[in-house]
Amino acid sequence: MSRFIGFVKKEFSHIFRDYRTMLILFGMPVAQILIFGYVVSNEIKDIKIAIYDKSKDNVTQEITNKILSSGYFIIDKNIDNDNQVEDAFKKGNIREVIIFEPHFAEKLEREGKASIQILADASDANTANIVSNYTSAIIRTYMKNELMKGELPFVIDTKVQILYNKELKGVYMFVPGTMALILMLVSAMMTSISITREKEMGTMEVLLVSPLRPMPIILGKVIPYVGLAFMNALVIIALSYFVFDMPMQGNLTFLLLETLLFILMALSLGILISTVSKSQMMAMFISMFALMLPTMLLSGFIFPIENMPKILQWLSSIMPARYFIVIVKNIMIKGSGILVVWKETLYLTGITILFLVISIKKFKVRLE
Question: Do 261 and 326 share a structural domain?
Fold first, then answer.
């Protein structure tokens, strides 16, 4: 019995000494419960909106203050003319535009009725539905509490118009996110496992003593995955267009170039993972834990980024998938060009170069 107890103690000692095992046993569950607990929510907060007040009277100001003081919305900009509405949506900064008709208070007094138009960006169908419902509810509450106290109640007619996705199809949201997730996993995970397999099996030595330099070796390992990942992207785009009726409002060639850039970024990340992984299992673990969960939860794929705590919003801002999803939505759904998504494109280009430079420096010509 004492031998058995001693053996158990030895196993505990081995586990506690191995920081990787401790990370899997305790770090991963804590991280997952915190991420899921804060991210998985149907509530909204700090949603950016724009106000187009054609009347600018005391009633429209009161309604605007009620909407902003609710805690659900923050104003991103005030719109001055009709041309700015579409530009505001295409830039992707706002989720909703609230339009007050001209002579709003005057019409309430004279006719007993005035109109408010709510324009919602339904490229994310769930968020558009929730945002428009919240706004309508706040306006109804204001009308009930402030305008219906007298003998002649006033009526505010709220008209909701859904833009870019009138039928509120979920595929408009899931196709860009699924595309980013699949390309990230296929490119980064398979590349990291492929290179790590060579190291683990000892065949990397053969490659390293060959006349080939490190750069050609890396390129030779990743080029097949560029082609395979690009074929995956073509299949996803074709299925989304022909099967799920996803629109293609923008330039297809531009979309494919952006997709190729994202694939190169994911491949460079996979190379970087392979340089710090000593086994295929470790490479797979890093790829799954560091890529799949953040891509699903922190990229805006499923849950609005505005709902997250500030620290998770900061983490989201460094997730490449977040920017690729914005690019795909803008090109396919809104028909945007490089003038709209140049910041996201520049970020993906910069982080690709950064990953490649670090990977090449860490790629050792001699195995330890």
Answer: yes
* Cβ atoms of residues 164 and 243 within 8 Å: no
**Domain total of the chain:** 2
Name the nearest CA neighbour of 86 among 365, 330, 270.
330
Does the pLDDT at position 278 exceed 90?
Answer: no
Tokens representing 302 are 């499923």
What percent of the chain is modeled with pLDDT above 70? 79
Domain annotation covers residue 38: no
Residues 213 and 334 in one domain: yes
Contact 296, 181 (CB under 8 A): yes
Check whether residue 82 and residue 142 sit in a common domain.
yes
* Position 13 pLDDT exceeds 80: no
Report the run of H or E that residue 365 belongs to, with start and end.
none
At residue 114, the 3 state secondary structure works out as: strand
Write down the pLDDT at residue 108: 84
| 244: helix, strand or coil | coil
DSSP state of 368: -
Whether the predicted model's global pTM rises above the 0.85 cut: no
- Domain limits at 325? 171-362
Q: Which residue has the higher pLDDT, 348 or 31?
A: 348
| Whether 128 contacts 95, CB under 8 Å | yes
pLDDT of 367 above 50: no
The CATH code of the domain that includes 64 is 3.40.1710.10
